[in-house]
Design brief:
single chain, globular, 6 strands, two-stranded antiparallel sheet, 3 helices, alpha+beta, four-stranded antiparallel sheet
């Protein structure tokens, strides 16, 4: 199977809720809504087809594309001892024309 397969991914219902962790609500992400985009924190091991399937199934919208960003955790000091913040992964989901997600209402 090629790297860019067109096979439809259908994860389980439990996996769909594990993939999408929380919406990212910042000034920048609210400006992205003008371009029909929504940003979510996702599981670090989630793939783009899984994210697409989760958004389409949970919010009943059509997804045009998915872009992901992995932010490595900083090394910080806590009470004099070194520690490390967790790595996070964000997904910027572009929706098809006419579709929208209202983050404030929830599922």
């Amino acid at each position: 199977m090629s790297k860019y397969s067109t096979r439809k991914v259908t994860p389980s219902k439990e996996r769909l809720f594990e993939v999408l962790r929380a919406p990212v609500i910042t000034e920048k992400t609210t400006l992205m809504s003008e371009f029909n985009q929504v940003c979510f924190f996702v599981a670090i091991d989630a793939s783009k087809p899984e994210i697409r399937a989760a958004v389409e199934d949970l919010f009943k919208v059509n997804v045009k594309s998915v872009n992901t960003i992995v932010s490595k955790g900083k090394t910080k000091r806590f009470r004099g001892r070194p520690g490390k913040r967790i790595d996070t992964k964000k997904a910027i989901v572009t929706l098809a024309d006419g579709d929208s997600i209202d983050i404030s209402t929830g599922l």
